[in-house]
Write a structure and sequence with these properties.
Shape: globular
Oligomer: single chain
Strand order of the largest sheet: 1-2
Distance between the termini: 72 Å
Number of helices: 21
Helix content: 55-70%
Length: 489
């Protein structure tokens, strides 16, 4: 018995060391990229930085329709403002790196939660480690880890909420845990509107006939806690703009920018077909005849799921890979897109099994909260892309709330494979994670992007929104600016 206990302890120690090594490697990877990726690269990064600057410099929240991204709930920006005040005097590179570190820490947290969740759901050590590697290095997540924006923090808060809900799914009569789930869900709602998916999912563990008085008390505690945390944000929106969920995408210049990415009206076939070009040319601008030029689109990206996949496994919107490499003959994109088929296929297999289990057990399956959230996220994604036909509406970062469910479905998919197929599938999935990490280590496969490209773009945009402080934010994070002498050539 003693020898067996010693063996178990040693095995657990080895797994913990492997997990720690994986997290350290990911942290080093994120840190390198946070320092070397072009300033303000990332989805709406300049607008997010301006929001943070307004809070940090003026000590106030901007009105929801005041700028480009100011409609977002404020929790992330309050944290970002604290970091901005701390780092502003150190220099533009340190400021940019520090703001990106907030996103990096959030994705690292998602990795830790994914490991804990899949182990809770019965995954073995090897499966749990490969799953964690995918969460940390799938391109959509690792690119988000070095972007300025609220999506990584929202993904972390949703994942933490779901981890609580997994425990409540086993026993919903735990008011303390229910309060914590409500707190996390409320903070997620105070970070990004899409966290409403997690708020709705909080009801799943309590949807049973044998709930009892303690269960109803826990449900009430969860509800009251979540509402108390999130309600001020939505009451403020209602008071200032007449709606709890104001959006700036219908205003200029946001509407004009989005309309430039519309290839045509949406059709049902956009959700049913995935052209091979989505894998072989995983970029919205990607042409066979030579370097891409403005306005020439890869029309295969009218496929919603094709574009979502391309932006999940590659840099479809050219935020990290310099745009001159988005052409035929560059193998990194097709390679990652093809390598991603195995882990993505396992996620879909596990999701299908989870849906069947949810229906068969009438909501009492152990991973029911994850399954419900993933289904809601998918439906919301379809609805949003249908109403907003622009390519930018179909980016995979909108699926980040399902990062933890995807991890659980991957682990479940592996367990469903025949014994002889599971090991090769894990090896190929681990290879996909390693390849993604190598391709998106700045300077290894691709050189750093043209540094001022994003800065110049946001300077131009800021001219259309003079009160939004976008140009001020650009000046604060611009390492190419000669103070008092303009931009260096």
């Amino acid at each position: 018995m003693g020898a067996m206990d010693t063996g178990v302890r040693r095995r657990r120690l080895r797994v913990r060391l492997a997990l720690a090594a994986l997290l350290v490697l990911a942290a080093a990877h994120y840190g390198w990229n946070a320092r070397h990726v072009a300033p303000l690269a990332g989805y709406d990064a300049g607008a997010h930085a301006a929001y943070i600057l307004t809070v940090a410099d003026e000590g106030r929240l901007p009105r929801p329709l005041e700028g480009w991204s100011t409609f977002h709930p404020p929790f992330y920006y309050l944290i970002g403002a604290a970091a901005w005040r701390l780092l502003d005097g150190v220099g533009p590179v340190a400021l940019m790196t520090g703001l990106r570190a907030l996103s990096a820490l959030a994705i690292l947290g998602c990795g830790v939660i994914a490991f804990a969740a899949v182990r809770r759901l019965g995954a073995g050590d090897g499966v749990a480690l490969v799953t964690t590697a995918l969460v940390l290095f799938v391109p959509v997540a690792q690119m988000a880890a070095v972007m300025i924006g609220n999506e990584p923090l929202a993904a972390l808060l949703v994942a933490a909420t779901l981890l609580c809900l997994l425990a409540l799914q086993e026993d919903p009569r735990r008011p303390g845990l229910a309060a914590f789930a409500g707190l996390l869900g409320g903070l997620a709602l105070a970070t990004k509107y899409t966290a409403v998916l997690a708020a709705v999912t909080c009801a799943v563990p309590f949807l049973r006939l044998d709930l009892g008085r303690r269960g109803y008390r826990a449900l009430a505690v969860c509800l009251v806690t979540g509402v108390a945390v999130a309600a001020p944000v939505y009451v403020r929106n209602l008071a200032l703009e007449g709606t709890p969920v104001p959006m700036t995408r219908t205003l200029e210049p946001m509407r004009g920018v989005e309309s430039a990415y519309v290839l045509g009206p949406r059709a049902v076939t956009d959700y049913l077909l995935v052209p091979p070009a989505c894998l072989l040319r995983p970029s919205i601008i990607h042409l066979a005849e030579g370097p891409p030029r403005a306005g020439e689109w890869n029309r295969a990206m009218q496929s919603v799921w094709g574009l979502a996949y391309a932006s999940m496994w590659y840099d479809a919107f050219s935020h990290r890979v310099p745009i001159r490499f988005h052409q035929d003959g560059v193998r990194a994109g097709p390679l990652l897109a093809l390598l991603g088929l195995v882990p993505t296929g396992l996620v879909l297999l596990g999701f299908a099994a989870a849906l069947a289990d949810l229906a068969q057990r009438r909501g009492r399956s152990s991973d029911a909260p994850l399954t419900v959230l993933a289904a809601l996220n998918g439906l919301a994604f379809v609805g949003y892309t249908w109403s907003a036909p622009a390519m930018v509406a179909a980016k995979a970062s909108y699926l980040l709330p399902s990062l933890l469910p995807a991890a659980a479905f991957f682990a479940r998919g592996v367990r469903m494979l025949p014994r002889g197929a599971a090991a090769p599938a894990l090896v190929l999935s681990a290879l996909a994670a390693v390849a993604a990490a190598v391709v998106f280590t700045t300077g290894v496969v691709f050189p750093p992007d043209d540094g001022p490209r994003f800065l110049r773009g946001w300077e131009i945009t800021g001219g259309y929104l003079p009160g939004a402080r976008i140009e001020d934010a650009v000046r604060h994070v611009d390492p190419y600016l000669r103070r008092g002498a303009g931009r260096s050539p």
